[in-house]
Fold each of these.
Amino acid sequence: MTYVGRFAPSPSGRLHFGSLVCALGSYLRAKSLGGRILLRIEDTDTSRCHPDNTLEIIDELSRLGFVYDGKVRIQTEHLEEYYEQGLKLYESGYAYYCSCTRDSLKRTPCQCVTRPPEFNRIPCALRLRLNERMPAFFYDVLRGYVACQSPLNAPTLIRKDGLVSYNLACVADDLRQGVNEVVRGADLMEVTTTQQYLSFALGAGYVMSYLHLPLVMADDKHKLSKQNHAVPVLDEGNCQEVLLAALRFLGQSTCGISVHDTPRMILNKALSSFDVRRIPLESGGDPLR
Ligand SMILES: [Zn+2]
């Protein structure tokens, strides 16, 4: 089976060092196994994402030497597909409609599973129905078996206002695109069993492989993210430097690689010495700060 991986950033800003580490890790892993690497823009949360950032990210990745297979998939261009998948999950009993509001939940617990609301007459969210088939752990390429707590509340798949959740869009796309290994930041380990279950509910015929990369931290407690004002990683002409810093962050050898190489040459040299076992498990600080 051909390896199919993906890099799937959310365009809530330009690339920062943390997103670069994921771009590099997913790229080297896929290419070192002779596989395909896809680029997908996860922009269903339109309150945080902007199309200008999408163009910017695509341009930045290309300046950094990354060449992706196939066409870039932009999730907001496929919303109908996610609504269709949501309906299938409802019809097969894996999801239910919930009319509760934040206020009503403070007064009474949700009973929409046993007493379904009239979803075609009142605004409802679609939620994943939790049950005992929810896995308790998943297997990670670097970390082995990782235990995961079941979510306390049924995860929302589609919000009342129609917004498609990250979990639904991500899992539906991984299946549609034939992705068989997900390489991403360790902050997403906590949603992995939910996604595995969702993938099973959507009819996956295989078990996804996972590889969670170490997080780039902004300080002792918080990962680097757009929410805590991560600075864009690229400025004029520093592609080589940031690629070298990201390689070191991933524990890879930079022997024989110089800042005078083109970004493409750096990626090719990194590929020839890439060793997945050298990737550290522990998170680290942003070396560019
Ligand atoms: Zn409810």
Amino acid sequence: MPISIRENEPLARYTTFKIGGPARFFIPTKSEEDIIEAVRFAASQNLPYIFLGGGTNTLVSDEGYRGVVIRNEDRTVSFNGPLVYASAGAILAVMVHEAVQRGLSGMEWAFGVPGTVGGAVRGNAGAFGLSTYESIYRVRVLQPDSYRVRMLDRDELTWGYRDSIFKHNPLIILAAEFMFTPIDIEQCKTNLELYLARKKESQPLGKECAGCVFKNPHIQSFPKDVSLPIEFFQKEYVPAGWLVEQVNLKHHVIGGATISGKHGNFFLNANHATAADVVQLITLAKERVYEKFGVTLEEEIVYLGF
Ligand SMILES: Cc1cc2nc3c(=O)[nH]c(=O)nc-3n(C[C@H](O)[C@H](O)[C@H](O)COP(=O)(O)OP(=O)(O)OC[C@H]3O[C@@H](n4cnc5c(N)ncnc54)[C@H](O)[C@@H]3O)c2cc1C
């Protein structure tokens, strides 16, 4: 089947912020062949391209994106003992849920993380001190310059806190294999429920947002004379939500965007916000935090079309 190429497709509906203008071209893909065809199409038009997973960590500009947005809609997940294969387009929570039903432990923490496997691998999504890379076995990638498909073994990958080789390299993630640990099924389910309960307690779930806007800055990035609570020294990172709260920006509103009262790192599209509203709120939070703490917050969210 030839790929379907849509022109001027509104992107807001493909993001959890529900914000943003159209893509010049938008191509949903269901297979690796489709992806290669979509990348070739972008090259033939001399346009940049970008992959969109669940759009749960992305802010699209009000003007949209003047390139090709490729959306991987292959949701394949398959199991071979403790080894799990998931297409980059697979929904992360679905993979985790299916693993837990089989008593496969390792990513129970990720059930409450929306988006796709591709997005989680690129951003090394994580929570509660755990992250995606701890369970990764290998990653199937496409090299866009040569259209070569190959497997990257775990020891060829580099990653860090919300960071991976894929943030510094044009490789396209096609799929990932995860290695889980078989444990008692009931224990696995309990783990998932405990993590989910902790997440619900601290985060405004079900709202139009993109999760945490900022990465948590490392304790060593603060000037020496800034006083911080002792527990942050043990954890090494200072929660960005706490910093935003300290500069009294919880509940702050600009246009239709507001900072959550429940979690200072969650910026919400509360009332038909524009991307410009969100960017103003982000700028304000960065300025205030810098003035008070001497640290520059770095975005975890991805900007598209700015
Ligand atoms: C309510 C809520 C709670 C959240 N909680 C958490 C949390 O606890 N922990 C956490 O880490 N994050 C959290 N997030 C953020 C988000 O869910 C994660 O970052 C998620 O992994 C993003 O996946 P996605 O598919 O939506 O990525 P997208 O937003 O679609 O894309 C993100 C980036 O990945 C790139 N990308 C996507 N697919 C591919 C691919 N196949 N190849 C190459 N690049 C690709 C995109 O180009 C983009 O640069 C939360 C978000 C929300 C809305």
Amino acid sequence: MMTKLLQLLTALLSFATLLAPPTLAQSPAKVSPDLVEAYVKGTWKTPAEGWQARIDQDDTQRACSLSRNQPAKAEFDKILAREKAAVVFPADGVVLGKWQDGEKVAQIGTGGQFTDSPTGPRGGNCYACHQMALTELSYGTLGPSLQEYGKIRKYSGDDAKAAYAKIYNAQSVLPCSNMPRFGHNKFLSEQQMKDVTAYLFDPESPVNKK
Ligand code: HEC
């Protein structure tokens, strides 16, 4: 009995050794960017209308991919300048909308996926990455906590404008950021971005209230 068990264990162990990827982490495979590009194009043979531009990498995404999100200083500065120049602020100069509507933008995680109706609700899914309202228990931690974001900044107008720019185009603040470019990619409307900025900056918003 004991020998049988031992035999089985040994067999299982050697099988596990076979399965384990031994040196993958140390030596990333060298794959030509052209091959990756061709592969991605091949998986999107008939993209939905308007999607082609989202499949093609822009200069910033390409620079980030090639440097594995660690661009050298000169490239970093180039991305920053290019993305800053691409931010479009609201024509009326007002970056704050209604925080109540902004709360929905922060909570809604649908829109733009294969399974979503094109006319269904579309949101920023901010909670997937950020802690926000002080009372909310469920949130992701890929991004920093935004609790009391406006309060900490004394509800400064300049800081609200900077937050709008961050939401519009995260790369205009931090090149190769993991945060989606909501305005740049025309994912959220101007009104939605104003509303979610108000969610961060209105003194009455649950983000700033205990
Ligand atoms: C996929 C994850 C992800 C999502 C979704 C996301 N963010 Fe972020 N966000 C990040 C990360 C990571 C950072 C920190 C790195 C950086 O600055 O880009 C960040 C930074 C920020 C900052 C700057 C924080 C600071 O230190 O001053 C603000 C403001 C912000 N996000 C707001 C939002 C809002 C509002 C939404 C929803 C409309 C949102 N984020 C959605 C990942 C995300």
Amino acid sequence: MDDDIRPRATAGPVDLASAHVVITGGSSGIGLATARLLAVRGAKLSLIARGRDRLEAAANELSAAARVADVSDSQALTRALAELEAAQGRSCDVLITSAGLARPGHFLDLSDEVFRQMMDVDYFGTLHALRAVVPGMVKRGHGSVVAVSSAAGLVGIFGYSAYGPAKFAVRGLMESLRAELKPCGVHVGVVFPPDVDTPQLTEENRWKPQETRAIGGAIKPLSAERVAEAIIAGIDRRRFLICPDTGTRLLARSGSLLMPLLNREFDRRVRAVRRKHGNT
Ligand SMILES: NC(=O)c1ccc[n+]([C@@H]2O[C@H](COP(=O)([O-])OP(=O)(O)OC[C@H]3O[C@@H](n4cnc5c(N)ncnc54)[C@H](OP(=O)(O)O)[C@@H]3O)[C@@H](O)[C@H]2O)c1
């Protein structure tokens, strides 16, 4: 066995007051809210996103380092991560992958391009970041990696045939990594937010089929701050499962047992929408 990946004794939590925390998607929504709370804790922050304006605004507000990169471009992302580690004079202690994209729609209406894009950004964007920072963490026997999946990564939902599988893939990746990295002292966490009040949700709502809206019902979206608090508590306590609300926690713990009941209720809501509006 390679000496560098010899299992280590269980490490304690990363000290966020002195840690270098990299957040992909740190310029908006959940990523930005998490960055704000981490800035209060004193962390050295590095942010990655594509759009320069929002990224610079976030970096200026939080005195963070930042690099423009598309997470689906593995070379550009790896280069950005290396530059951020050099700029901060410290390796990445914590990686939070929040960069993501959701495009709901009827399966029959979605283009092949959308299916590919969800996997490229939501799944491969997470994978590329992990592949870049995990080897160093394993060598140091220390660190924390947290990926943002979704409630749509716990249960198949009408209208999410492109987004859901990408978030299921993130969950599968993190479950395997948890097992592999635990003996190396690296904490692995995965976040399952329900609807969260962010620019992504506003954009997503433009595309949601009526049936998907009916399934969501009148549940009020969580604030990004609430999800950020759950992420930080998850890092402090080295939790694998990071659920910002009770409903998602129940789904994460007992999803397969609840499936028959959930499907019955989801199907009932879809039928009601179709009776009212016809086949949408
Ligand atoms: N909001 C919800 O209801 C909800 C629910 C469950 C899970 N989630 C997940 O939570 C994560 C954060 O979402 P959010 O709601 O906070 O969305 P948001 O406010 O739209 O923020 C998304 C962030 O990701 C960046 N990003 C998007 N595509 C990127 C790419 N290809 N490369 C690099 N950066 C990229 C965005 O910046 P640029 O566009 O400038 O690149 C932005 O900083 C996502 O993974 C999302 O799927 C959200």
